[in-house]
Amino acid sequence: MLTDLQKVILPTGIPPGGICLRDAGRMHRRLTGEFGNCAHFHVMSRVAGGAMLFGDEEKEAFRLLMWRMAKFSGVEVLTYCVMGNHFHLLIRIPRREAFLGRFVCDTPGGAGERRLLEHLRLLYSKAYLSRLESDIKDLRREGREAEVQRVLDRYKDRFCDLSLFVKELKERFSRWFNKKHGRRGTLWMDRFRRVIVEGGECLRTVAA
User: Fold this and answer.
1) What is the Cα–Cα distance from 117 to 132, expressed in whole angstroms?
2) Cβ proximity of 90 and 40 under 8 Å
3) What average pLDDT values come out for the chain (208 residues) when binned by 10 residues?
4) In degrees to the nearest 10, what's the CA dihedral of 128, 129, 134, 140?
5) Domains in the chain: ranges and CATH
6) How far, in Å, are 133, 157, 207 from residue 69 at the CA level?
7) Nearest-CA neighbor of 152 among 110, 117, 128, 184?
8) Which residues lie below 8 Å from residue 65, measured CB to CB, with a gap of 6+?
9) Is the pTM here over 0.90, yes or no?
10) How many other β-carbons are positioned within 10 Å of the β-carbon of residue 114?
11) Distance from C-alpha of 147 to C-alpha of 33, rounded to nearest angstrom
């Protein structure tokens, strides 16, 4: 039987109704590594009402999910602190172009695309990826290559993006926490707070 900590890092399965291949139409301010030397952020978020909800198990679950999401998203967690009612993360956002370089492919279904689908295994189940690959093949048989690229870009748009990384980390943890404790409603007080941190001594001070 799966433990609660194992359940928190399970890959995402196929959602009800199947995989939506349309663009999500999501708009937000992208916080990426394109700030010159300022690619480090101090991120903070607190639970609603400030209640001390997180014990050792909840903190460990958050930590496991954080590392999984960071590896998927391409962000680097330099250091972190998970407290009873809030967390702090010190995050480095790499150059997005460099991270995406491994997924560049000149031919449909080439090496870059295969690396992307393999990378998605960090977060998605075998059933989900099998369905995704089947849908992509169907689109190509119909000569809809432009739509295939839009589908793949939908996943790549989530890489090296601070806002999406923290948003999804909090949402996934909230679903696990609420299910474990039989609760409903908002877990977090607000979106999240972030401060750009310069490198060198400033970065070392914040880390300390």
Assistant:
1) 9
2) yes
3) 70 72 46 54 94 95 96 95 96 91 88 96 95 96 96 95 95 95 92 83 80
4) 130
5) 30-95+160-203 (3.30.70.1290), 103-156 (no CATH)
6) 22, 14, 21
7) 117
8) 8, 9, 169, 172, 173, 176
9) no
10) 12
11) 28
